Amino acid sequence: MKHVRLYQNTPLNIGEELTLDEYASHHLVKVLRFPQGQSITLFNGDGFNYSAEVFETKKNCTVKLLSKDLNPSESKLNLTLAQGVAKGEKMDFLIQKAVELGVNKIIPVLSERCVVKLSGDKLIKRTKHWQKIVIGACEQSGRSVIPEMVSPIGLDEFLQQPSVNGFVLHHRSEQTLLDMAVVNKATILIGPEGGLSGAEIAQAAQAGYQSLLLGSRVLRTETASLAAIANMQLLWGS
Prior knowledge:
By secondary structure, the protein is α/β, with parallel strands linked by helices. The protein is 32% helix and 26% strand.
């Protein structure tokens, strides 16, 4: 049986018995039909993996916490992805894969060419949905630190925030990552479908963002984001 990792939003203390939350209990008992006496791994975002033994699998699942170990899976590059909100499942896919690739923070940005319009209850609901995707990606990829998932903000508001080593990706740039100095913290700004407008790119440059080119081909937003993250992790992270 595949080893199971589950997130629990609660303090985890060795030697204690813990009743898993409703979602985790349902997943273990109803979906996986997990047997008693087997071990699972829990994490709560503090950077540790917690080994636990399942000893009750009724309606709610109860485990005993046995030990904890520091999880070494985090990259030495602290990377923020500021992503123009993409349509439908593209954004879900982007968030999931960005977490798997090691980003530390995701900021959905509402720019000029965003087709998706978010406000009020819809914005709150979508942000909660994305947070669940972040946690699921951590469970799958073996991370024990939960990347920060920020509520969507407008590009103007985003660019007013201070940033360290900001990069704006667009195909008219002439600079590649190989032209950049090695850094241990960075923010990358990427537009939605259709990219950022010329005025938005100029606005980002005025805010201190360096232009960045990935290659000679024009990439879709989901391809560009993940390629940029993967290349930055290869050159500067893990």
